[in-house]
Amino acid sequence: MVAATTTTLKVGVLALQGAFIEHIHMLNNLAEVSEAIPVRTIEQLNSVDALIIPGGESTAMALIAERCQLLEPLRAFVKEKPTWGTCAGMIMLANEASSAKKGGQQLIGGMGIRVNRNQFGTQKDSFGIGLHMPEIVGEEPFHAVFIRAPVITDILSDDVKVLARLEKQVGETKAETIVAVRQNNLFATAFHPELTRDDRLHKFFVNMAIECYNNKQ
Ligand code: GLN
Which portions of this protein are annotated as coiled-coil regions (predicted)? Predict the structure, then answer.
């Protein structure tokens, strides 16, 4: 007998702060997404199969999540369910963050990575660049938009797979940093893929999530 397989998912986008609408628009255009909803409550979180944590401001997002009593439910969610953090969302998913807010900031955690916030400077230092990510989007480069973006400075677990690196001229030297990783059901990118018209990364995440469910059966 062939096991029943999942082919569509209900996907949530954490909507406490930041660029969540753009993710919802992109998800709504994918055949594999039955519904895409903003997530602001525990009930909404419990109703989705997979979650995107968007870019924005990780300090503000953490404070609001704490106030809405969503931090612990989010920590439980990411232990099991497919979740993708973009930019500030990647910071939220990291187990450790440098250049954190004075006095520290709450993270959801779950990924064995250390990130450094605001690696490339302020808003005016934002940039877009073609990233080569053959394992996830094929040979054609993906135009990645970096806005006060973090990078991954350390990999803290053997389960973390590096999916994209960025080579950037910093002063006299070219420095290479890690900007996309996967750890089992968790995916993180340092940039904003929802600000382009290219939905290849959203497709990758939804297919990754479907695969997570089908492999569990
Ligand atoms: N610098 C922001 C932070 O630390 C992230 C920026 C972004 O999400 N575009 O949370």
Answer: none
Lookup: tokens for 47 = 């109703």
What tokens were used for 142?
A: 């993906």
User: How many CB atoms are located within 10 Å of the residue 52 CB?
Assistant: 29
176 and 167 in contact (C-beta within 8 Å)? Answer: yes
User: Which letter does DSSP use for residue 120 in this model?
Assistant: T
Q: Cα(110)–Cα(167) distance, rounded to whole angstroms?
A: 26
Q: Is 85 exposed, middle or buried (0-12, 13-18, 19+ CB in 10 A)?
A: buried
Whole-model pTM?
0.95
* Ligand 1 atom 2, closest CA: 57
**Binding residue ranges for L-glutamine:** 56-58, 117, 147-148
Catalytic residues: 87, 192, 194
The CA 217 to ligand 1 mean position distance, Å, reads 36
Q: What are phi and psi of 25, to 5 degrees?
A: -60, -45
Q: What is the set of domains in the chain, with CATH numbers? A: 9-215 (3.40.50.880)
Q: What is the pLDDT along the chain (217 residues), one digit of tens a residue?
A: 455 677 899 999 999 999 999 999 999 999 999 999 999 999 999 999 999 999 999 999 999 999 999 999 999 999 999 999 999 999 999 999 999 888 889 999 999 999 999 998 888 889 999 999 999 999 999 999 999 999 999 999 999 999 999 987 666 777 789 999 999 999 999 999 999 999 999 999 999 999 999 988 6
Q: Is 49 exposed, middle or buried (0-12, 13-18, 19+ CB in 10 A)?
A: buried
